[in-house]
Amino acid sequence: MDDALYRAVIRAARVVWRVLGLRLEVSGSEHLPAAGPVVVAANHQSFIDFMVVGLPAVHRGRLVRFLAKQSVFGSALGGPLMRGMHHIPVDRTRGVTAARAALQALRRGEVVGVYPEATIGHAFTLKDRGDLKRGAAHLAIATGAPIVPVAHWGLHRVTTVGRRPSLRRGLWVGVRVGPPIAPLPGETAIELTGRVHTALAGLIEELLDRYPEPPQGPVPAWWWPAHRGGGAPSLERARDLDRLAVARADGVADPDLGMHTPSTRRVQGSA
Predict the structure, then answer these.
(1) Which of 9-13, 168-172, 261-265 has the lowest mean pLDDT?
(2) pLDDT over 70 at 254, yes or no
(3) H or E segment at 26?
(4) Would you tell me which CATH number, out of the four given (3.40.50.880, 3.40.1130.10, 3.40.1190.10, 3.30.460.20), belongs to the domain 4-223?
(5) What is the pLDDT of residue 250?
(6) Long-range CB contacts (< 8 A, 24+ apart) of 87-90?
């Protein structure tokens, strides 16, 4: 498989990081197997977080094939790039097609990247256990591939849903990789997803503990999680915002929110 474009994009991303002065800290890359099929399960906080989620694999000499929303593949700029890097499009109305492509990639011994949260979260912490999708678990159970949890924190301060991009220099972005989680004999997708949730949530808390410049001052910072005293929405409020973002993107009514949300590209809730 020709990955020249993918490697060129990685080089370009590194230039962007230097221009922005991002302080990237990646730890635990050794947990990602150097060969064989792997499912990477990551939290989702930014439009560009795949650019840091893939770094541990790059450190191991590998590339991640991410599952990403179909609309990205339809854009004039993103489409050729996504197809050239052999990522996998996901159409929410026809998820079976994406699942088959992901299974084929795993059976070729590749690394497949999945966001169990499905949409960018507004709380800047991991969504509740019951809100995680089970696709990563199903892929692991079907192929025997381990799930490697990859948590990141801080990139949402550059760009995220509902916020204008920031060019502030010197922001810290942490990426932490946990030990592989192998499916157990007879384990269900619900049970395996629960173990992934526990691992990812713990890694995120470790990144928050390591954050070098926690917010100070009388006004809670919008980017700091509510459970740590920040101004980000609570998990309950964030769940409503997440659903509203998806409804707006799809141009459908959400009966639980009691409103009709016209189609708009201003809110991009799924990736």
Answers:
(1) 261-265
(2) no
(3) strand 23-27
(4) 3.40.1130.10
(5) 63
(6) 88/112
